[in-house]
Design a protein that fits this description.
By secondary structure, the protein is mainly α. The chain has one domain. Helices cover 63% and strands 12% of the residues. It has two helices and two strands. It is rod-shaped, with a radius of gyration of 18 Å. It starts with a strand and ends with a helix.
Length: 52
């Protein structure tokens, strides 16, 4: 298993050096992306509430 962020440049490197490895996303980046998405939704809802 090889962990990393979602950058596509990692795929060929892993395939070349570890052809039998499975690549998975690391928890740090998953949580970071989810937090960013949640913040965007919160701001949208907040702005919509106060725009009325």
């Amino acid at each position: 298993v090889v962990t990393g962020d979602g950058a596509r440049w990692i795929d060929p490197c892993v395939a070349e050096r570890c052809p039998n490895a499975e690549r998975v996303l690391d928890g740090f980046h998953i949580v970071s992306w989810m937090t960013d998405a949640l913040d965007k939704v919160r701001m949208c809802l907040f702005n919509r509430k106060w725009a009325v």
